[in-house]
Amino acid sequence: MSNQSLATSPEEQRALERFYFHEARLLDNRQYQQWLSLVSEQISYLMPSRVNVQVDNRARGNEDMISVERELEDQESMGCPIREETYIHLMVRVERAYKINSWSENPPARTRRIVGNIELMAREGDSFSVLSNFHLYYARPGNEDVIYSGQRRDTLLSQEEGFHIGRREVVMDYANIAMPTLGLLF
Amino acid sequence: MSLRVSELVNEDASLISRRCWSDERVYALEKLGIFGKSWLFLGHESQIKQPGDFVQAYMCETPIILSRGQDGGIYANINSCSHRGLPVCRADHGNTKRFVCPYHNWSYSVEGNLMTIPQETEVVQKPDKSQLGLKRVPRVEAWRGMIFGSFDEAIIPLGDYLGDMRFYLDAFLNRFPQGIEFIGAPHRWVLNANWKLPVENQLGDVNHGAFLHSSIIPKEAQDMIERLGYSVVTTPGHGATFRLMPEDSPIDEMAWGMEGMAGMFGGDEVQNYLREVQAQAAERVGDLRARMKGLTYGIYPNLSFLWSNTSFKVSHPRGPGKVEYWSWSVVPADAPGSIKKTLRTNYSSFFGPAGILEQEDAEVWVQQFIGSNIDFADDRPYYYGLGLGEEKPHAELPGLVSVTANEFYARHFFSRWRDELQAVEEML
Question: Per the CB < 8 Å rule, is B215 touching A47?
């Protein structure tokens, strides 16, 4: 992927924004079943683990030395990503939210997602590689309020009824994980 | 302060004070009487295979560097410079010849010896570097690749400390021709909870599954746990829960790993591997242990192991009301890379910081601390009396054995805990 985003028409950029803002509103309104209909049944939903890596002396002076990628234990690594989920996992999470005994969501968290920095990085047929950033404010009775911050690296599939999420990798910005759960729908 | 340890836990440990979980002085006594005196888990040999390899660890709140020396030996040193106290290692893991303090660049070998003091050429009296290495953890021993350290030079050997728990650990560790491997850096997260509740939860509390986790765990699975489940205490503070599967069980019901997401949805390659492990299990661990399908294990004071979701966990205290919880995914060392990658999702799907089940556990651990830190209720200690006195020896299973609803695992833990705190009570 080139480091430059693609030049998009205002209509195309607006279509991407419209999708992401709709998605964020569904999640904040706890309409997870509707959200699931935006997800491809072949989805990979990934969250790499983020580690404190040893500085490689030979890389000093280069951007590589402190690259974000070096900090990620992702799906390709022999480390242990935090999430490597399929449609089944997401379905379980969504169904669980509407059970009366899903205690970590009872009462449910009040969340607000702000999604921005939406960049179309590549386009191949119906498949779009899109980066976006998010801040997610999370407040739940009995817990301290927290802010989740991260980047999403998506593959969106353009279909007749609109975009579907074909792949999502969520890169969280944490040092120690000081949030009640990383199991939310980001 | 007037609070006495004898007031915290009653004689048969069926009543446990809220202050056990929330009091600053109790925590100070825990550091002296437990974390200063026990074998504490540091890491696994698979994490430090080559000379120069290191990982970070903790012993309570004290940061430790666990490393493989140039001589092939295992070293554990406190990660704090002898000059001004800074950590000399900042990476979670890696391979190095030297640890260098950022402040004045004192440097240490991977074994912890002080190698250079850049300033010493400018002064007349040279410091004795042989006395200024990193502080070594006085006792380090390994069993089946699992490395433990102790601050107590006089502690009993690790093998004796683990005792009959080795019988149950081996049911898993010895199931695989090359043992197990820890993969990746630990997931570490911070919860506003007391360190003992995650420990208790995985020492024997499988009974909460039917209730707290009922949104995910199907009733049939819970019924089977009650029907086939055993809870065992080998030594107070060490415990295991498991199902003993009937001899005629189909291999897919017996085999480790099949009941997780990776086993269910991971495809033929991983399922065939799991069947093969099970087919050889009797040969490797004997008929009885081949039929064992574990649930939770606990090693005193703060190491836990989840069998089906295959994770080792350490509950590192950060005060009475805060814990830094570490967990690793564990896979059979002999499995091909592709199978290891699939099997790690048996852990991450349900446990770890995003786990569908563990999010419920984290929730109650935090809520329990809130309840333990309230006022005007010290006359109402927690009730730990379920199944009091109902545990018994067993013909084939070492230790005391009972049904999973019996809370004897927790009573034994707290009896030991009380005695160890009492032994140091006068020191504070």
Answer: no
